[in-house]
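Q: My labmate handed me this sequence with no annotations at all. I'd like to see what the chain might look like in three dimensions before we decide whether it's worth expressing. Could you predict it?
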Amino acid sequence: MIERIREPAPPRGIVRWLARLPIYLYQIGLGRLLGSRFLRLKHTGRVSGMPRFTVLEVVDHDSEAGTYIVASGWGERSDWVKNIQADPRVEVEVGGKHFPATARRLSPDAAAQVMLGYGRKHPFALRELAGVMGYRVERDDAAYLALGREVPIFIFKPVRDGTD
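A: Here is what I predict for the chain of 164 residues:
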């Protein structure tokens, strides 16, 4: 079972600065300290047209295809979500690798399967992530599937040889 306990809101003040700290690690060349559990996303501001950066937790990775999947902790209101929906061309940096990619939102059913896998692999991290997103989640497969259908989840697919 999942329960909506509040609407997610991006952090403000000192909490916002702390949440953005990983971006600064990447800027000074220490992003690889975060390993492959996090990635830095470079996207284009939908209004400004300027480059924007955010660091996101990786919920799934296919090493053979080179794809990475992330969930939006702040839901639909997140600026990076709005930006990549306006322009899906992004750049990803993770574990010392840097590559151009195309962002695509997963269908609710595909997102549910991703969240199920993540919940089984990282149940405590999933509960924390769900809390950030404004949900209380039971530790069971049905709850993980339900959460995956509620949360915006995106896949970043590398662009190879000018095609995606």
